[in-house]
Amino acid sequence: MSEYLLEVKNLKTCFELFRGTVKAVDGVDFTLKTGEILGIVGESGGGKSVTGFSLLGLIDAPGRITGGEILFRGEDLLKKSEEEMRRIRGKEISMIFQDPMTSLNPLQTIGRQIDEMLALHTDLSSAGRRARILELLNEVGIPTPEDRLDCYPHQFSGGMRQRVVIAIALAANPRLIIADEPTTALDVTVQAQILKLMENLVKKFGSALILVTHDLAVVSEMTHRVVVMYCGKIVEEAPTAELIRAPRHPYTKGLLGSIPRITGVRTPRLPQIPGMAPHLFDLPKGCSFAPRCGYATERCREEVPAMRELSAGRRAACHNPVSTEKRTAGNG
Amino acid sequence: MLKYLLKRIFQMFVVLFVVSVIVFCVMSFTGDPVLMIVPPTATDAQIAEARIALGLDRPLWEQYSVFLGNLLRGDLGVSYMFKRPALTLIVERMPATLELVFLSILISLAVALPCGVFAGARPNSPLSRAIMGGSLLGISLPSFWVGILFIFYFAVEKGLLPSSGRGVTGLLFGVPFAFLTWDGFRHIILPAVTLALGTLAMLIRLIRAQIMEVMRQDFIRFARAKGVSWSSLLFSHALKNALVPVVTVFGLQVGSLIAFATVTETIFAWPGMGKLLVDSINTSDRPVIVAYLMIVAAMFVLINFIVDIVYTLIDPRVDLR
Ligand SMILES: Nc1ncnc2c1ncn2[C@@H]1O[C@H](COP(=O)(O)OP(=O)(O)O)[C@@H](O)[C@H]1O
Ligand SMILES: [Mg+2]
Questions:
Q1: How far apart (Å, rounded) are the C-alpha atoms in residues B71 and B77?
Q2: How many helices (H) and strands (E) does chain A have?
Q3: Domains, chain B, ordered by start
Q4: CA distance B162 to B156
Q5: How close B250 gets to chain A, by Cα (Å)?
Q6: CA distance A300 to B74
Q7: Who contacts B114 (Cβ-Cβ below 8 Å, separation ≥6)?
Q8: pTM for the full predicted model
Q9: What H or E segment, with its residue span, contains residue A31?
Q10: How distant is the Cα of A90 from the closest Cα of chain B, in angstroms?
Q11: Is B83 on the interface with A (CB under 8 A)?
């Protein structure tokens, strides 16, 4: 078996809409090792969620995975039947959604919703499952779990619900967890707690984690490596520390500009990248980022830049990568 | 909970009071029952005498207060035609209507639930399209026409099923019911199916729309990400959520089935409350009509109340207060 837990090769997911085809994910490659935390960042609409759903085979019509490979433990998930995928979902790969307010079934107790996961993917007896549910709830920091089993989601706050969702995602001890903006819908104070919790649990359970977010600040604190997505493509990949210290793609640099620095005066969180991402229906001819890019040349507007290895473990798809010599200024 | 119950009961009385006023007023302005009762040869003096005997000579508000007083004592007047208490007449006919309606509801649910869930879960399959086409027919065809068609085909042409009356009845708790005997059961099939069609078609469409709506929601996708199977996704996650709004419509539908089984009962000569109502309207039998309307209004209020209770059983977010 390969050294990777997950190898995504040239993944393409399209949506056939009335107005035309949207290439929401267009030739994405990345890899992930056991125990690794990978960040996927980018502005909204960049294809991050679609990438996550594609990994689980949860793309519904009019969407379709049109090409590529998703090798999970050496086996291509795209070749699996729906029934085989069903046994992988939750057990091998589980997912945490953005909005905890809508992720849980409003008409089932949380105990039952965790139990469902255990009943599907473990051999535990009903007493064994109950003990495990209490253990999980305890693990995710829900006080007095015995009293909470029979509560319904609406009796919980957003942060508490996300804890329940995390408990469900962890219940069957999956090898990979995909967290799609798990804290975006939560209060800032709760965000930090939930992220810390996830980080600790992932370490403790030995799972790999893909953390999808539009917020580089979140990524910088938790992940080992980062993939930056723009308009369905990966534009840069690097170990987190290097990416934060010296972004090579102008888009990454722009994203970084919106992070408040830890030291010194807080810079306001202004959008540092001028303009808006183009609509996927009418992408520009060359580099999708060219119209918003301060470094763009004639070539960028004509020719789509290929992904290039810049140094060991670093790659970017850019004709004019930002030089590493000239350190970027504090506020980008 | 107790406070809620008291509040509901109070509301129920307010509604019934308002209904009683409306019903009484409307009845007082339509037709002169005295002329229907006295023999055609009656003299003016005899007519006036009858009017006094029936209390119809007194001012309206006085007639109403007498009516209301009687109402509160459970006395809904005496039928002009049958010379028996109107309430008794209706209660006697009630089992026939109730068994007809009950069977119709069973048929509607048994067909509409699987069809609606399937059409909602697989909206693009040919079978779903067929179901939807059929339901459109069911909604648009008037029940009297369908009833007559059924009689013509199943009773006249094929001679398979009887087309009129209730047949032999059996006793349950001392109350006669047709479905207890084979003959009675054969009699109830055609009217029950006829009565069920409209409700069934509407429920199919409603359930389908609700299922489609629910299947788009995040928690369904999350359940799929858990590895939940398709059937369990539909039946243990989607269906219950889809039923919340269906319950209201269903409740109202049960009410109108009971109240307006009239047409079906008339076509199939089914001796229920509906047929009694039509007969009473034809003879201006005012006490029976008024009693019927009051009972139906009470039934609607009661069903609404039951719907609210069912709500709380389905949806933990609903708070009775
Ligand atoms: N169900 C869908 N139908 C049509 N288009 C979709 C659908 N889901 C996603 N898309 C398209 O895919 C693009 C990427 O979406 P998404 O992955 O949700 O972005 P992100 O998660 O990065 O914010 C969107 O711009 C949208 O146009
Ligand atoms: Mg997203």
A1: 8
A2: 12, 12
A3: 2-72 (no CATH), 86-314 (1.10.3720.10)
A4: 9
A5: 20
A6: 89
A7: none
A8: 0.80
A9: strand A20-32
A10: 4
A11: no
Contact present, A8 and A28 (Cβ < 8 Å): yes
Ramachandran angles phi, psi of A210, nearest 5°: -110, 115
* A117 vs B contacts (CB less than 8 Å): 226-227
Interface with chain A: mutation pick from B122, B124, B214, B219, highest number of A CBs within 10 Å = B219
Cβ contacts (< 8 Å) between A158 and chain B: which residues?
none
In this prediction, residue A330 has a pLDDT band, given cuts at 50, 70 and 90, of: very low
DSSP of A55-85: HHT-PPTTEEEEEEEEEETTEEGGGS-HHHH
Backbone angles phi, psi at A297, to 5 degrees: -120, 180
Contact B226 A56 (CB under 8 A): no
- Is residue B30 very low, low, confident or very high in pLDDT (cuts 50, 70, 90)? low
pLDDT in tens, B33-86: 676 667 777 777 877 887 777 777 777 778 788 878 887 887 777 887 888 888
Asked if the model's pLDDT at residue A239 lies above 90, the reply is: yes
Q: CA of B316, closest CA in chain A: separation in Å?
A: 6
**Under DSSP, is residue A211 helix (H, G, I), strand (E, B) or coil?**
strand
Gap between the Cα atoms of B168 and B145, Å rounded = 26
State the distance from the centre of ligand 1 to the C-alpha of A292, rounded, in angstroms: 21
Contacts of A187 (CB under 8 A, 6+ apart): A158, A159
Per-residue pLDDT of B255-268, as tens digits, reads: 888 876 888 888 88
Cβ of B226 and A116 within 8 Å?
yes
DSSP class of B78:
B
What is the per-residue pLDDT for A200? 86
Q: Which residue of chain A comes nearest to B122, CA vs CA? A: A61
Query: Strands A93-96, A176-180: parallel, antiparallel or unpaired by DSSP?
Result: parallel
Best of A55, A59, A99, A105 to substitute, by most chain B Cβ atoms within 10 angstroms, is A105
CB-based pocket (< 6 A), ligand 1? A 15, 17, 22, 24, 42, 44-50, 63, 280
- Chain B residues in contact with A89 (beta carbon < 8 A): 224-227
Closest-CA residue of B relative to A86 is B227
- CA-to-CA distance for A98 and A194, rounded, in angstroms? 12
Give residue-wise pLDDT tens across range A120-162. 999 999 999 999 999 889 888 888 889 999 999 999 988 889 8
Per DSSP, the three-state class of A278 is coil
Q: How far is CA B95 from the centre of its chain?
A: 13
What's the mean pLDDT in B237-251? Answer: 87
Asked if A65 contacts A52 with a C-beta cutoff of 8 angstroms, the reply is no
Spacing, Cα A46 to ligand 2 middle (Å): 8
Domain definitions of chain A by residue range: 108-172
Nearest CA to ligand 1 atom 19: A45
Query: Where on the phi/psi map is residue A59: left (φ > 0), alpha (ψ -120 to 50), or beta?
Result: beta
Residues 6+ apart with CB under 8 A from B130: none
Nearest CA in chain B to A154: B317
